[in-house]
Amino acid sequence: MELKGIHHVSAITANAKKNYQFYTDILGMRLVKKTVNQDDPSMYHLFYADEVGRPGTDLTFFEIKGAGHTYPGNNSISYTSLRVANDQALKYWEERLDQFDVVHDGISDQFNRKALSFQDHEGQRIVLVSDQSNQGVEAGIPWDKSTVPQKFGITGLGPVRLTVPDLEPTKRVLQDILGFRESGSYPAYEKGQPDIQVFETGEGGTGAEIHVEVRDDLSKERPGRGSVHHVAFRVADYQELSNWKDKISKERLANSGLVDRYYFQSLYFREPNGILFELATDGPGFATDEDVNHLGENVALPPFLEEKRNEIEKNLHPINTTRK
């Protein structure tokens, strides 16, 4: 069994409408699914991705109205990366972020790649990374109806950074249980801190990396709007997911058991530093219940919630997501 890379990252927003405007109008991603949190249908769950929502391209958000500020710290998913095709695309994005008054840190080097760090309107910490020298997991294809020219568009999820107080427990789960390989390191952003360790799975590269930052000087993160809820890793199919369940259970890691999310099947567990991991299958995908040309335009519900549609939609503030 081998994980194929990053499947999706799920984060928190306090306002679904403003979130939709930022990630589609400014970042140019496609909303491929407008649905609800299946565990709490009173809140939106929005999925942004490439043209058809390929696995490895999904950045998702739960809307928690009234969510307070995030107080960044340890035991957290501290940065999410988004891939772009090359260094030239990063220069485009530097100018675009300036155009929309999005504060950023300028283009820098990160693990032998060019990168551009910024925060969204709620403080979500994001890094755009260049795929110019990437030879690993294949990127997605940006939507040709995006607000961003396709050649500069976001092609998927890049490395996810974890911040933890102790490397070894997380390293053991990544390597000994999930099969990641240690592939290098790069200097920490804070003086006096250990190098950031890089782990990869599958074909490796930007779409299959976890970066682990060790900080002994931080308190535990207090999550809110702008924080990340969990990261999911790609599994080929349901049978392999079932095998992973058996393996993780034998390691005595408490887990959710197999969960049918309709668009994929999942398994959830926390590693010892408290970070929530999910394993998710590549299929069946977001076109299961919507035409691919109209993804994300209406509220989509899995069959087991369909009978509650009227009640669910009454509790949601309408968002016009029909794209011209």
TrEMBL record:
Domain VOC residue range list: 5-131, 156-282
Pfam families, alphabetized: Glyoxalase (PF00903)
PROSITE patterns reported in the protein's UniProt record: VOC
Gene3D superfamilies cross-referenced by the UniProt entry: 2,3-Dihydroxybiphenyl 1,2-Dioxygenase, domain 1
Official protein name in the record: Glyoxalase family protein
Lineage: Bacteria, Bacillati, Bacillota, Bacilli, Bacillales
